[in-house]
Amino acid sequence: MNPNASNNPTIKDVARKANVSIATVSRVLNNLSGYSDKTEQKVKQIIKEIGYQPNAIARGLINKRTQTIGVMFPNVSSYFSADILHGIEEYANDHNYSVFVCNTDEDGKRTMKYLHVLREKQVDGIIFSSEMLKEEYYEVLQAMKVPVVLVSSKADYASVPYIKVDDKQAAYDAVQYLILHGHREIAMVSGTETDTMAGIPRVEGYVKALQDYGIPFKENYLVYGNFTFDEGCIAMEKLIQNAPEATAIFAASDEMAVAVLAVAAKHGLKIPDDISVIGYDNLKLAEMAVPPLTTVDQRLYDMGKLATGKLIDMIENHCVADSTIMPHRIVERQTVRRLT
Amino acid sequence: MNPNASNNPTIKDVARKANVSIATVSRVLNNLSGYSDKTEQKVKQIIKEIGYQPNAIARGLINKRTQTIGVMFPNVSSYFSADILHGIEEYANDHNYSVFVCNTDEDGKRTMKYLHVLREKQVDGIIFSSEMLKEEYYEVLQAMKVPVVLVSSKADYASVPYIKVDDKQAAYDAVQYLILHGHREIAMVSGTETDTMAGIPRVEGYVKALQDYGIPFKENYLVYGNFTFDEGCIAMEKLIQNAPEATAIFAASDEMAVAVLAVAAKHGLKIPDDISVIGYDNLKLAEMAVPPLTTVDQRLYDMGKLATGKLIDMIENHCVADSTIMPHRIVERQTVRRLT
DNA sequence: GTCATAGGAGTAAACGTTTACGTTGTATTC
DNA sequence: GAATACAACGTAAACGTTTACTCCTATGAC
């Protein structure tokens, strides 16, 4: 009788039925050398026969590698994260890694909990997306001794590889685009005021572009949101109140740009006739907007892939990857009008 | 000397430093009984001191439980999946489970590969989202002997618990809503023609509503997409060609409804003045549309949570959960006009 | 015929836990 | 004072793999 009838078959079961040792089965499984063709056939046949599947947990225990990575998002369900995740997932899967998704809610407590869970589960590496790498996190990460890469973020004090676009330059280019289309009254719906990653640099780019073209910066032209649609709406309402002369708006995220579109429509403002809008991200959402949104593309999907590539490289070659500044470009659609 | 200086500390290290056996450490770790207060303090102190973290892999090997679930999506980055994933992730995390995301691309090969990976990694359960549970999959699932729950899907031949809205009824209600607003020329942008889950039932609901109100069904009023924005655009173009008399459109997904909005705008058609539109899903996208989209809400986030709840229940109590028909409701926004 | 060699295979330790079982010592009961 | 009970531990097996060693046998060189 099979002493192990109800459970999933193990390497032992295969060994017994094939009349070989488990070492031999392991060898053919990992196709190493050290067995005859005949044994190989026999073993492989038994494996098919009883439907044996290796146990990655046991494997992980001895190999100290789990073929698993963890990915931390401030908000998994945001349309922004979705693209990055897609890239990560795809690359990881193609290279035989699985991915744990973690939703931090931008909450320190939650993040720390996740970090501990990922550590317990022995992930081989971690990707941190669009979030500040707080020192608190970094310490745990160091204790874990696993590679980390940042995507759409950056850590100044630590030598963690990152992938992001040059936010200041990208913002500059967006605003310059508006200027070159004849606009001089340009407002901005910024991201989080204190965000050193995606908030501040983009307003810096905005301000610099204005400066370079001799356009005075006006306080009332700059309002803050937190990158989301809802706050984008509030911000746009403010703009309509305080900056009715603006002919163009630069929004620091597509979600907020779409919010601008939405409240503009609510107020009977035509886009781009009454007001031009340029976004930032190039989400699918931008294509779907009415009218289709002109925006700066940051290839989130590719960033996800690239980040995963770097991470896996670090895992497998025990090296440290370099950072990369992702190229950006403006994709012209229909929300910016040329002023004559 | 610590013989284990460079690696992460293990339970053995704790035991040695605390002058107790590993069994005792294990006991305080899992707070069982069988040790004195003094020992407990000592052990806990050492744990803090050397920063010990249990190894979930080793734990998983012996417990045959990994506190991990797998989630399969046809497309992780779709705005539809994002909401479900968010719900799943949240509930899972709150109950100390981690989640592996899998992107099947609706591809059988990929799906099977994933199923095998999930099996190897010994997940405790699997959630299948918005996809047919093919017999091929079901067989593997059975071999794995892990609980499965379906969300926004359903399997007739197998007793797998599912969570979904009554698609036919929801579609019926949507169309009825249009009818009660005075529309009689109602077109439909359907989902995938062969999709028995979300495709066919929704057109059945559409047809039935027309019937019940004595409105003749017209072939040219029904076009097919695959739930996505891109195909929604193509579908809408067809409708404008073939059914210019339609005063209202029921789209089988919000993405397609937004596509309807987009191409309508492109053709100079005003929403809802020239044409009314009702969607299906109630994604954030619906709120963001211009004008905001009237649609049928299916509470995807809650469905994700509920599915995970059922799954964990099945895992922990070795029971089989029942299915639930999720309530739906129409959320009125601004894309449906009352015909006088 | 002897020796070295290499191919083909088995043995057993190790990975980091949990847990059934055994042992010791002390307090309680009569 | 013997019997009992229980608290407070320790021992060792087990989970399913991988892999360093070891062993045997056949082959070929000389």
UniProtKB/TrEMBL annotation, chains A, B:
Gene3D superfamilies from the xrefs? 3.40.50.2300, lambda repressor-like DNA-binding domains
Q: Does the entry feature the keyword Acetylation, yes or no?
A: no
Q: What Gene Ontology terms describe what this protein does at the molecular function level?
A: DNA-binding transcription factor activity; transcription cis-regulatory region binding
InterPro entries, per the entry: HTH_LacI, Lambda_DNA-bd_dom_sf, Peripla_BP/Lac1_sug-bd_dom, Peripla_BP_I
- What Pfam families does the annotation carry? LacI, Peripla_BP_1
What keywords is this UniProt entry annotated with?
Answer: DNA-binding, Transcription, Transcription regulation
Does the keyword S-adenosyl-L-methionine feature in the UniProt annotation? Answer: no
The HTH lacI-type domain extends over 9-63
Q: What is this protein called?
A: LacI family transcriptional regulator
Recorded source organism is: Paenibacillus antarcticus
